[in-house]
């Protein structure tokens, strides 16, 4: 069977940075550790005045096409995953194709273009669409560009404000890929939930605390569903486990539950029971509250064991480095988690060809999906090719007053004028609602 997967990835961060400890926490009257330790976030990325989901997506896709030496004729699909779309008729992929046509001789008239929406999970669903299209033999030798692009903004004063972010990830999906091959097995956990909604509004209405519980429940269902087709999983089966990362603290919660589930029935479970006792059982408690408290204490003890800390440090921690600097990118989030880990491994000179990833995607509303990926020959070169570290470093550090102006500028309902803080450098820019997204 032909291998199908992700051949290459390019990442584009919004060019502005809000420092959560230095700039945001003092204005909120909060201890900076709430953000840096509690949520696990150092900073958020924001788009400059001339950036939006189209320019960030087009710039990431352009870098991808240049690096992989692609012409429009090589591309059979352009799919964009976003929950920040501004057009209720045509997909954002048509705007991005329009940008790219300014710099290539050919055009994308032959390419199928679409837009996927299901909060953060839409990027993974777009990869699935490309995978199925190639596997079905409908691709005529062409590959698919999948772009995940979002400006993840919350209303000012909302608890989610500290988790904002903006950026795009462009991925090239092909036969015989050079980064990761996707598994045929997938697991899902999906339910009609109302903890995070944007009914005809730009900023979400969020029940933050509940959204954390919904994430964990759907992710648990997806893992169980995945195991029902792929067989039981074990924490040591995977080199890395990239999760959807709204903030690293969320992944800390998901990881400990996933680990506990995956070690059941193994020697690791026996060793754990010897150390911290058996997992509490509901039947042994009079009330739900008492049982929940006991489970919380048990999980806290588990997190402190040497075995867990070592596993977490090797398998989860490396997936969080980019997101701790840029915040939540919604659809792009799990894809920067994968690249964080692979980049760190490539820089360390690790040999991972043939090793596995377990990838946990999630979107509010809600759906989780879990699949496996196999790291393939060529991955080091691909992982090192993105310049995301330099981009993160180069961001302009905004003051709180500037942050408020930037937030207003990117509020679709009341777009305000704003002088840019940075200069475009040979890239697509948003130039107002006339002839849009010129290259400057
Ligand atoms: P909050 O309620 O302001 O924060 O916002 P908190 O009081 O819960 O504190 C956060 C953590 O910091 C806690 O840790 C505190 O203990 C700790 P935890 O107990 O949870 O482990 N803390 C400190 N630690 C050290 N030193 C200190 C300190 N102070 C506090 N001094 C909340 C948290 C998640 C509610 C908020 O960020 C929010 O509403 N976020 C938006 C929703 C969200 O991200 N949900 C995540 C799951 S849903 C999802 O991932 C989908 C999403 O990406 C959307 C989509 O799908 O499109 C959001």
Helix content estimate? 40-55%
Main pleated sheet: 8 strands, mixed
What is the H level of CATH, i.e. the homologous superfamily? Thiolase/Chalcone synthase
- Strand fraction equals 15-25%
Succession of helices and strands: EEHHEHEHEHEEEEEHHHHHHHEEHHEHEE
CATH class: Alpha Beta
Query: Helix- and strand-based class?
Result: alpha+beta
**Cα end-to-end separation:** 44 Å
User: What is the overall silhouette?
Assistant: globular
Architecture, according to CATH?
Answer: 3-Layer(aba) Sandwich
How many independent structural domains? 1
Radius of gyration: 21 Å
Let me know the average pLDDT. 96
Number of H/I helices: 15
CATH topology: Peroxisomal Thiolase, Chain A, domain 1
Bound molecules: 3-hydroxy-3-methylglutaryl-coenzyme A
Number of strands: 15
What brief labels describe this structure?
binds 3-hydroxy-3-methylglutaryl-coenzyme A; 20% strand; three-stranded mixed beta sheet; Peroxisomal Thiolase, Chain A, domain 1; 15 helices; alpha+beta; eight-stranded mixed beta sheet; 440 residues; single chain
């Amino acid at each position: 069977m032909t291998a199908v997967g992700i051949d290459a990835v390019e990442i584009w961060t919004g060019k502005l940075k809000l420092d959560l400890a230095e700039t945001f926490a003092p204005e909120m009257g909060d201890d900076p550790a709430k953000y840096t330790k509690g949520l696990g976030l150092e900073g958020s990325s924001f788009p400059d005045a001339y950036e939006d989901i189209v320019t960030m997506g087009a710039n990431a896709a352009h870098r991808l096409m240049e690096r992989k030496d692609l012409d429009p004729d090589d591309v059979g699909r352009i799919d964009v995953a976003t929950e920040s779309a501004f057009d209720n008729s045509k997909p954002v992929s048509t705007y991005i194709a329009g940008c790219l046509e300014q710099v290539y001789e050919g055009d994308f008239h032959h390419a199928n273009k679409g837009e996927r929406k299901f909060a953060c999970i839409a990027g993974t669903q777009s990869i699935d669409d490309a995978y199925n299209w190639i596997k079905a033999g409908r691709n005529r030798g062409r590959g698919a560009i999948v772009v995940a692009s979002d400006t993840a903004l919350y209303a000012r004063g909302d608890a989610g404000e500290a988790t904002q972010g903006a950026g795009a990830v462009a991925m090239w999906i092909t036969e015989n890929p050079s980064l990761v091959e996707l598994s045929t097995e997938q697991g899902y956990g999906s339910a009609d939930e109302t903890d995070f909604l944007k009914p005809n509004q730009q900023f979400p209405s969020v029940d933050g605390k509940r959204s954390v519980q919904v994430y964990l429940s759907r992710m648990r269902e997806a893992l169980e569903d995945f195991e029902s087709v792929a067989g039981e999983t074990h924490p040591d089966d995977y080199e890395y486990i990239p999760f959807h990362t709204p903030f690293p603290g969320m992944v800390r919660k998901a990881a400990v539950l996933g680990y506990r589930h995956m070690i059941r029935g193994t020697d690791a479970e026996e060793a754990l029971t010897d150390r911290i006792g058996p997992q509490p059982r509901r039947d042994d408690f009079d009330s739900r509250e008492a049982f929940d408290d006991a489970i919380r204490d048990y999980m806290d003890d588990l997190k402190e064991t040497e075995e867990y800390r070592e596993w977490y440090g090797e398998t989860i921690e490396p997936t969080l480095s980019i997101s701790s600097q840029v915040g939540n990118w919604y659809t792009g989030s799990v894809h920067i988690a994968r690249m964080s880990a692979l980049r760190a491994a490539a820089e360390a000179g690790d040999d991972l060809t043939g090793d596995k990833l377990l990838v946990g995607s999630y979107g509010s509303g809600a759906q989780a999906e879990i699949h496996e990926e196999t790291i393939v020959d060529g991955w080091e070169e691909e992982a090192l090719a993105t310049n995301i570290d330099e981009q993160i470093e180069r961001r302009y550090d905004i003051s709180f007053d500037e942050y408020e102006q930037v937030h207003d500028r990117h509020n679709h309902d009341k777009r305000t004028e704003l002088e840019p803080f940075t200069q475009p450098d040979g890239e697509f820019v948003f130039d107002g609602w006339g002839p849009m997204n010129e290259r400057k």
